[in-house]
Specification:
It contains one helix and twelve strands; from the N terminus they run αββββββββββββ. It is an all-beta fold.
Amino acid sequence: MRQLVYNSHTVVGLSPQAISGAVTVDSISLKNYQHCTVYLLVTKGAGAETGAVALTQDTSVTPTGSVKALGFSNMWKTADISTTDVEVLTAVVSNTFNMGGVASKNSIFQIEIDTDTLDVDNSFDCLTVTLGTLVTGTATVLFVLSQPRFINQTTHLTAITDAG
């Protein structure tokens, strides 16, 4: 099927909201999928926005205290969506990057995660995004899960519980 809905499953990790302090986005389970694209949609305020972004892995969608950092070396960035729709591959440093950039602009950050980068040998199969303060900005996080392990043409398997 060529329709995106048959090949992917979208989960809202964070509804649009002000990030006035550190935020941990809802966790998702990757048990039933082989790939996840994390979309971070950011509206920057008038001030100097920095807001660090990091990924963690866990053994459950309910935090267990077994959280581990999840390494990643790059992300795709569209710094100002009012002037371009071109994503630029951008290196990250020490598995994190800042949402900073041009004040009062909208940006999109995209992080690609293959499930084989998680520590599945030790039952780490859940993914979480953490966001640092944006001062006056807002953010939304979407998880787009793809390459389902089990295909069902009428429904997708859940990613918000540990079922599977």
